[in-house]
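Protocol step 4 of 5: obtain the predicted structure for the target chain.
Materials: sequence only (see below). No template structures provided, no constraints applied. The aim of this step is simply to have a reference model before the mutagenesis design in step 5. Sequence pasted as it appears in the construct record:
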Amino acid sequence: MLTLWILLSLASGALAVWHAVSELARHASSSATAVASTRNLDWRRLGVVLAVAMLLLLLGDAEQGYGFRAALACALGAAAAAGADQFARHAAARLGDARVLGRVLATATAGFGLGGLALLLLVFADAHGVPALAFTLGAAAAAWFARDGGQASAEQFVALSAAALAAALIRRAAPADVSLQVYPLLALVCGLAACHGGAGLIARLQWRLPGQVAAAALFALAMALVTWLLAPAPHLRGGEVADPWRIYLALMTGLAVVPTLGLFAEQVASVRQARAQELAQQSQQGAAANLAHGLASGMASIWQSAVLLAFAVWATNYLAGGYGTALAAVGGLALLTTTPPPVASPDQGAHGRGRLNGALALTALAWLGVVTPAAGIGGIDLDNPNFVPGMLAGAMLPFALAAALALPERDGGNDWRGAMLPIALAMATPLLVGLVFGRAAVAGALLAAVTVGVLLGQFLANAGGAWAGALAYVQQGHLGGPGSPTHDHVRLGAEVGGRWRQLPLSILLLLAAAATALALPLFG
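Step 4 output (structure tokens):
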């Protein structure tokens, strides 16, 4: 039965990629090269990182899941993410319509994600959690080195990592329950079908209904049927078995929370909202006022995201434990093809970026709640003298990563510092903490790194969106319009925020968590 469901997911992924290719061929334009990426995937540096990671995996104990199988899983994850990236670059060079481009990339992203995960479960059906961790490590590395290219890379990684967490790592708690493994895959399958079926249904019936609403309704109905048929029931703390409909509610929580985070981001960046307009008005006082108020706007917007994420983690964990939190991330990603692409208008771009950042944050929090217990890392222990030093090191990591990511690149993008320093920091810091202070310190480091990193990432993205919204507002002719001193001031802020909005902090934090869990045997 498991093989049948996996083959269905694999076929659905292949069908999604084929559909994306067909859409690309139908809408291709020879004049769309302006949106193409100026740089290709950094194969050389990715090869160096993968070679080191696969060599270390090969040296591990095969009885614990390491060895050749883990190295192969790492290569598979990198190949799936790199495939999505290459398709995204090719599509960006041939499509000029931002909405069509976003729809094509999202469909291909889901297809590559389904295909990669289905192959992972098909090849490593009897493995424990190590191949899933290695798969995620490879996908994260490929997504990192593809960050300057196609827009599908980060979405691809989130879809892969979130579903891999729910489908593979949870098997340690209930290895015989096939439904737990295939339920996240079927959620992605139903998400693809709902997106395309919803659009067709609206067109056929001539309903005046937003495509996202129709797709969400179809997805909820389809997953209700899947829940009734499979009846997934993970084990909670204390041995209690969760009711299948609690699993369904956890999935629907993610479906509601992630778009809401996108609306929060849009509210900060929208030229129709007071925040962007107020920031533009304050910029009349000079560039310093623009920068100060932009930072304040980003800080003031954090409480909404923090409260909503806290509620999502609490609700999904209460409903279905760590499995529910991972499913919430899958639910938030299931309707990718209805998400406004980041290359659209400033408002829609902020909404798409906000949904992506929200899904990344929820995925990182799911890693904290699923990966660390599955790997045997302990919880909070303030009486342990090693816990607080680890926590401080983890809290430092997101700031160090943000600083390394914000450094300007040298030598026309061939600077090894800009590409290798962040990934080295992300992987080496938790490893050094574990080797020096032990597992208790690793628990503190991961707790602090994920918590601080999620909030810092939201702050940087929202501040960047506020600066972009203020620039768009002035460019519409307000406050003197283009060429005025105010325009020069808001343009400076938009240039600063442009780098901040794209910082892939959550990807690096997930990579750090995967690397730490894989290196756990070294910590004693």
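Step 4 remarks: The mean pLDDT is 78. The chain is about 75% helix and 0% strand.
Proceed to step 5.
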